[in-house]
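Troubleshooting entry. The earlier prediction with zinc ion gave an output that would not parse, so I re-checked the input for stray whitespace and re-submitted. Clean input:
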Amino acid sequence: MNKPHSETYRIAIKGLVQGVGFRPFVFRIAIDHELKGWVENRNDGVLMEVNANQEELVRFREQLLSQAPAAASIESVEMRKVAYEAHETFEIRESRDVNGSITEISPDIAVCSECLDDLKNQEHRIGYPLINCTHCGPRFTIIRDLPYDRPNTTMDTFEMCSLCRSEYMDVHDRRFHAQPVACNSCGPVYSLECIPTCTEDIREILLKSAELLSADALLAMKGTGGFHLVCNAFRELGVAKLRKMKQRDGKPFALMFRNIEEARLFVEISEAEEEELCSWRRPIVLLKRTRDITRGIADNLASLGVMLPYMPFHHMLFEHLDTSALLMTSGNFLDEPLLISNERAREQFSTYVDGMITYNRDIFMRVDDSVSTVIRNVPMVLRRARGYAPSPIRTGFHLEGVLGTGAELTGSFCMGRGHLALMSQYTGDLKNLATLEFYQETYDRYCRLFRFTPQLVVSDLHPDYLSTRFARKLVEQNPDIEHISVQHHHAHIASGMLSSGLEGEVLGFSFDGSGIGSDGHMWGAEVMKATYLDFERLFHFEYLPLPGGDKASREPWRMGISYLYHCFGEDLYDLKIPLTEKFSREEIGNITALIQKGINTPLASSAGRLFDAVAAISGLNYFSTYQAEAPMLLESAIDPNEKGSYSYEIRERKVSFALMIRELIEDIHQGSNLGSPAAKFHNTLVRLIVELSMEIRAESGQDRIVLGGGTFQNRFLSEKVMDKLEKEHFKVYLPQDIPVNDQGIAAGQLAIGAHRRKLM
Ligand code: ZN
Ligand code: ZN
Ligand code: FE
């Protein structure tokens, strides 16, 4: 019976409200409030209708917003009064498909606290390591097709027992329509394979794994989106073995801590960082290290990648472990995609590991752990994968049918459906066939899941990137598809604009390692006026030779010599700094010969290479064993008390650092510890960015600044630049939900393509 003065309202909620238990949540609070009406899933959100009076409506809305399931993300709530209709009950209606738009697919969600409770108390799920509910558990990684129903997931081979089914059917139950619902008697199971033990008994698995991990054992362990390779984070031998197995020289490893208190013993965690660490996405968060950690994990770096348990099994394992942290790295070999299948993992890992912990539910979509950092209390995703993919980025313009294929490093593509930009998870560095296959496979699956048909493909200007070739192949297969190329650094800025919802013109600082420029040289320190349509290059770093091409980006000492030769010519041999002492006259001569003759020595205006040169000249890093090693070491070396900076000159809109290099060498001669030059170098870049911004604002009035490119992953630099610019009343934007590095390129390409298409 409807109460007096009741009216009928329609409430449309948009955002990520499907696959996260939103309809049952609405149902329960409607019942609590004794409201009648209905709720249904639409492909663009959730729509409900209720009979209520004003007061009830306000209370209902308040509860909708304040108590929504953790993984839900409400973008907008629209309420309007409609013609009165009497409802007798409150019901959940069948999903409806409107105007061909798409359903958002939930990312995978870390196990919720209620499930962790059930793990101990709910009879049929006591110790059940794959427990989940509508608020948590696997989603994107197990979905083969839409609609999101069990037969379309990798749970299709498991039949629900009658108890699970009754929960699944009961709208009052937390597992109402939880597609992966399962229990000890009907669900997938874990197993441990090691010699001589092979067991599916969860207690034995936990005890044996804990025993192995108390020493130097390596384990392969199946996670949500792929395998991890795991060892005790406090056993130097185990860490070394893992590093050897992964053929990984210096790239830092991330740790999973038992809980935040244990993590706090090693890293500083601000409130915003705590929130990010504990969020349902559970990314790896880069945190400031406060104490030494086992050698081989993150040598010489000031930060440490930390995550918290996110699968029920992780929690169960930590209860048995005597160590407070595990080293967990993606289960792949150098440059290859993460392994997801039990068979492949067995084949590839068994000779290296002491055991394999797995379960018999298949992973369909390969998704790595995400990585994020917190800059001025705002989280910024650096590797967008588990917990993020495939959440769309909402834009204010029409993107339908546009595809951005990305760059080379940290591969990703981005497809447009309606106003949504669907960005793929990180697909690895697109440098070999194996990652290209992963990329292609992911692309095919996104096309099916999101009913995407490409009309316009946008790639990088670089003709040899595999992502560019992929674009050309699509066009060859279907000549109706248009293809355009977009300059890399313009794409970085467009990507930042998209992430911050900006329109019109901005001033962009696009700083990174390198990308091909419109003039055929390598760019990487570009100051531009940019819109989604086009850009104008206003300033850039002076071009310097990159002796040996690609080799120069792996060997910072080459850039060091290039800068020294540029500043001192043949006198560089008399400098008496570690760099010129470390390498013989002949070795250095070989580099200068390359420069003189211009053999395999492109010109580059790259910020990344400037960091390399400074790191090499300072004696910090001559050979990189992983991408951006030199810049990371340089940032880690900073003495925050040093406020000084170096000189530079701007001539004909080009920035020369010749003076800086001379001053740096004086500092080195004076034997100052590296913290001071490292800080002065960073401060120089900050000063430069502020000076250029002021100059451009004086010319054009432009006061909106977008920072883009991998260089701005540098937290010290980004925070300082933003602080200083804001002090000068600029509005400064750093992307948040789109990586500032090359993974974000695809999104920028998409935005540029969508705007250029209007002119085509
Ligand atoms: Zn749960
Ligand atoms: Zn069951
Ligand atoms: Fe880049």
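This one parsed fine. The radius of gyration is 27 Å.
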